[in-house]
Write a structure and sequence with these properties.
Blueprint lengths: L11 E4 L7 H10 L6 E5 L6 H7 L4 E4 L4 H12 L7
């Protein structure tokens, strides 16, 4: 099911670990649905392959917690102004 407000978003920031669906699964779902909303995935976990999986499934950026606020702001600026190709 697709949210009726998703297309109104400039960017989606999701955590890897969420109840019901992982952030990587959500990113993959959005890619399959051909969503144009850029995705930034964040995590506190350092599991091998997470970053590669997130980026391969359409994420624009993968950030580890604790998140540097300046880096997040710079990444948001890039995706909102379409200065980065995602997926």
């Amino acid at each position: 099911m697709r949210s009726s407000t998703l297309d109104e978003c400039s960017c989606l920031i999701t955590d890897v670990q969420m109840p019901g669906i992982s952030g990587i699964e959500l990113t993959k779902f959005m890619t399959v649905q051909r969503s144009t909303v850029p995705v930034i995935v964040v995590t506190a976990h350092a599991e091998a392959g997470l970053e590669d999986s997130a980026l391969a499934n359409g994420a624009c950026y993968f950030l580890r917690k604790p998140i540097d606020g300046d880096l997040l702001a710079a990444n948001l600026s890039k995706v909102i102004t379409s200065q980065v190709a995602c997926g």
